[in-house]
Amino acid sequence: MPELQLLRPDHAPALLAFERENRAYFAATVPDRGNDYFARFDERHRALLAEQEAGVCRFHLLVGAEGEVLGRFNLMDLADGGADLGYRVARRAAGRGLATGAVRELCRLAADRYGLSVLRAATTLDNAASQTVLTRTGFTVVGETRLGGRPGLSYLRGLGDLATGTADHRPSPGA
Fold it and tell me: From the CB of residue 147, how many other CB atoms can be counted at a distance below 10 Å?
């Protein structure tokens, strides 16, 4: 069973492989990361870990039994009880309910471990799979947006129904 893991330094090789293998697949529905992302991957990975250590973001990987990255599930810009959710799933893992399960788990982590009360998300209009995941996990459409110049929808999900009162409001890099 795949496991949602907080991003670590040793994830770098598997994460880079995931991004390279799925670049064209992702570019069909989300803005491409560009060549610079891959050329400076190690530097970017260290910067993400520093943001996580500072408590600004929480980056998670969905890791398979062989240590392969099946998806990324991130909480970005944690502030004032909220964060932005972003995620992407490998082509070979799509359509199996993994994104829905990982987003549900991340919503619970956001409420219980990170002390958040609301998550925001957005997807392009042509990304029906992400729209389905967001709807199935309790997000509701709150408006229109543009992502990389493409039309999209903005979503919101309150987390009050998930909070158990066990939140650790301190930054916890090893969480």
Answer: 17
Residues 6+ apart with CB under 8 A from 43: none
In angstroms, the Cα distances linking 175 to 60, 96, 143 are 10, 27, 33
* Nearest-angstrom CA–CA distance, 154 and 117: 17
In this prediction the pTM is 0.89
Closest CA to 26 of 16, 37, 14, 18: 18
Cα separation, 123 vs 157, whole angstroms: 14
What's the mean pLDDT when you consider all of the chain?
91
Instruction: Check: CB of residue 129 under 8 Å from CB of residue 113.
Output: no
Contact indicator for 4, 60 with CB cutoff of 8 Å: yes
